[in-house]
Amino acid sequence: MFQMKTKFPEDFLWGGATAANQLEGASDVGGKGLSLADVYTFDEKMPKEQWSDQWHLMTHKQIEEAQDPASKKYYPKRHGIDFYHHYKEDIALFAEMGFKAYRMSIAWTRIFPNGDELVPNEEGLSFYDRVFDELNKYGIEPVVSLSHYEMPLHLSTKYGGWVNRKLIDFFVRFASTVFDRYKNKVKYWMTFNEINCVTHHPYVSLGVIEENHPNIEQAKFQGAHHQFVASALATKACKESNPKAMVGCMVSYQLLVPYSCDPDDVQATVDKQRTSLFFTDVQARGYYPAYTAKMLAEKNVVLETEPEDEQIMRDYPVDYVSFSYYMSSAVSAHPERIEGAVGNLLTGGVKNPYLPTSDWGWQVDPKGLRTALNQLYDLYQKPLFVAENGYGALDVLEEGDKIEDDYRISYLKEHIKQVKEAIADGVDVFGYTSWGCIDMISAGTNQMSKRYGYIYVDQDDMGRGTKRRIKKKSFYWYKNVIATNGEQLD
């Protein structure tokens, strides 16, 4: 009756993950419009501590300058690594590694350049036809995010972003268009990438410009509500187009642990954990959790809803839960007394003395991934997909085209071990796509030198280089991991 699983499932989806705005480039090709990501700049003379400032805050002045053809600033995500013209070469390298799946996103701005058009852009649709056909040639399953930090800039500047209910219809039109177009090419979909990040960076997640909103918390959660409704309506549209397709939600999941056994630390951890779980609670269960009223009241938020919203969310929850996992975070009720953690922490946090730290201040906690998988499965009893997990580092290209990235192999190996442990625990995990399988522009800092990939791209932070693709040591390691279905990790 009970049999412990000691191996990865035979049909486990091994692969890698990218996002269109960090990868594709060709922002002025094929009728593409400007996205929120296309206005981010990078200046190698900028102090390091300012690199990620844009990620958290964007102003009208910056957006206006970015749209000025005379601007002399460098906008890295308009160039990416030119996957648009290199996709065949790149997918062939993914196939050489043995990828079973490739998690990617469709740039909304390639399909509807401004976001509010009635008729889609055929050139954009044709591009993804070619990408999916190339993946199919190698038997690689596409896992496709609809919105991955790349909504049309026009929807922010004209409509105010997701705080405006009109965006629900625009998104559903986009989703329905690609569902119908690719229903025979794509089985797995995700609606909003890291949807809980609306609390952390409302501009890139919601198209909300903070200087427009005296109560930014109201804007964040109103926008989130509209995304919940849009996600449910998109799920409905997907099922009508292809009943066999699966639609998932996706969150950034930082495992939170109490800094101490002080009851105040424990309660502070519970309170902060809800900041992330709120989003999966709504999308996986189909309704707002009981703690919503208190949480919103404490933030002085009053949601504006329509009578039909509650029912559509109940009728169309997601089929699976996917998440990114890079680190855990310790929580204290009195963080001012303890050394703080640095890095891309959604929840803040203090330094955990038991964990090592990456070059970017991210605390490395492989066992936390097993805990996270168990937590999410216990809560929702839905299949889980590890959509992102990876190690950003300053890789060095040595003579003879060698990149000895043993640190990346070590990080990924230890995390994959914990996925296997979670499967033995009884968790239903059906895929693992490590982040940034090929080097590309960093989401948060807009650098190229923060590299995650198995494939090195000869390009620097200012876009200089040949864009030549070079296999790292981790390329061959991951190839063997997939070939042995996770049995050989050393």
Automatic annotation (TrEMBL):
EC number annotated for this UniProt entry: 3.2.1.86
Keywords recorded for this protein, A-Z: Glycosidase, Hydrolase
Source superkingdom: Bacteria
UniProt GO molecular function: 6-phospho-beta-glucosidase activity
Pfam families: Glyco_hydro_1
Similarity-based family: Belongs to the glycosyl hydrolase 1 family.
The protein's name: 6-phospho-beta-glucosidase
